[in-house]
């Protein structure tokens, strides 16, 4: 269920990820009129820009108008704040699209609820959960969730050893004490990630090698990224060779 694809070059990682996204997009659109995807922050926006916008052969296969974009985690700041994951996606992907390209439908946090005290953070999480896609009354998982892997093994805003790792009911929760700034965020939980049809991680650079060694090591690390690998959802890792140097994993090409 867990596959790893590795390339020497960053551009090749971006293009492989783009081919993978397009494959899932096309499969999904055979039976649905929407392709539902979640994006994370970090370096992912740049990788998407390289693969889905700047590679002409791939760019023309992206059916943006049928995309519904969610965020696997979001910082509780205004949408134009430099810390906003939406802001990053807007800058690196939406604004980088040619002006003639159709725009995806992007589901952001309810910005009007973001305040200075954090008193509405639970409400923001609940509101986002309300807006997840549904089949009748039941919330359904996304077609694809794209994740990053922090050097500490966190993903979404699920941090090692944090109580939120034990959440077994709610699909979106807020966190007030993220060890990585900014502290106030909302995040997908494991119960929601478990509903996903596909999950892909992107991890690049030698700085990721020690944590990937733990995640893919024989001994259980309990790190959030490893817990995602164990959800039973098809998980694909797109990495560069430097990130899996000395990591015990069999990598192929997508
Ligand atoms: O909201 C966040 O803090 C980011 O989404 C974060 O989870 C990121 O995905 C990882 O830290 C990996 O970041 P890089 O891809 O930049 O290594």
Automatic annotation (TrEMBL):
Q: Keywords in UniProt for this one?
A: Cytoplasm, Hydrolase
Q: Which reaction does it catalyse?
A: 6-phospho-D-glucono-1,5-lactone + H2O = 6-phospho-D-gluconate + H(+)
Q: What SUPFAM superfamilies is this protein classified in?
A: NagB/RpiA/CoA transferase-like (SSF100950)
Keyword Manganese in record: no
Annotated localization: Cytoplasm
Q: Name one GO molecular function term.
A: 6-phosphogluconolactonase activity
Family annotation (Pfam families): Glucosamine_iso
Domain called Glucosamine/galactosamine-6-phosphate isomerase: residue spans:
9-230
Query: Which is a Gene Ontology cellular component entry for this protein?
Result: cytoplasm
Coarse class of the primary localization is: cytoplasm
Q: Which InterPro entries match?
A: 6-phosphogluconolactonase_DevB, 6PGL, Glc/Gal-6P_isomerase, NagB/RpiA_transferase-like
Pathway listed: Carbohydrate degradation; pentose phosphate pathway; D-ribulose 5-phosphate from D-glucose 6-phosphate (oxidative stage): step 2/3
User: Could you tell me the Gene Ontology terms of the biological process aspect for this record?
Assistant: carbohydrate metabolic process; pentose-phosphate shunt
Similarity-based family: Belongs to the glucosamine/galactosamine-6-phosphate isomerase family. 6-phosphogluconolactonase subfamily.
Protein name as annotated: 6-phosphogluconolactonase-like protein
Q: Which organism is it from?
A: Ambrosiozyma monospora
